[in-house]
Design brief:
Elements lengths: L4 E12 L2 E7 L8 E2 L2 E3 L6 H13 L2 E14 L3 E14 L7 E7 L11 H14 L12
């Protein structure tokens, strides 16, 4: 049996005023599922550069990419997903939905109010563990 196709992606955990940005897929196989925005790493790109580019393309924002928050390995039926998730802050602009059909700024306690794509569930659990019991705005882990 051949190895499943491997897809390397990055995702941004956008933080603002104690809330985390979530987007809902508007098309494709995973339509209607909620995710952290991002996308595929192009050949020759660093993960950080790929994330900044993807968020510019998907949300028309410039971001400050912070530290790696977590990495996820997940097997979907048709491919293996390798996802690196970085904490981010908006550097300029407000998100405009160019690829998604809905978005929400969620408090850590509200993360389970949407239906996440399977690969994103472990990220949600980690966010709840890191930020769920704290008050105030989450900070980058190295600040």
């Amino acid at each position: 049996m051949p190895e499943p196709k491997r897809v390397d992606v990055v995702a941004g955990i956008l933080l603002k005023e104690g809330r985390i940005f979530a987007t809902r897929r508007g098309k494709g196989e995973f339509k209607g599922g909620w995710e952290f925005p991002g996308g595929k790493i192009e050949p020759g790109e660093t993960p950080e550069a790929a994330l900044a580019r993807e968020l510019r393309e998907e949300l028309a924002v410039e971001v400050s990419v912070g530290p790696l928050f977590c990495a996820v390995e997940h097997d979907y039926p048709a491919f293996h997903l390798s996802m690196r998730c970085f904490l981010c802050e908006l550097a300029s602009g407000e998100p405009v939905l160019l690829e998604h059909d809905a978005a929400k700024w969620l408090a850590p306690s509200e993360l389970r109010s949407v239906t996440w794509l399977t690969a994103d569930v472990s990220v949600v659990e980690r966010l709840e563990a890191e930020f769920g019991r704290q008050s105030g705005e989450p900070r980058f882990l190295d600040s």
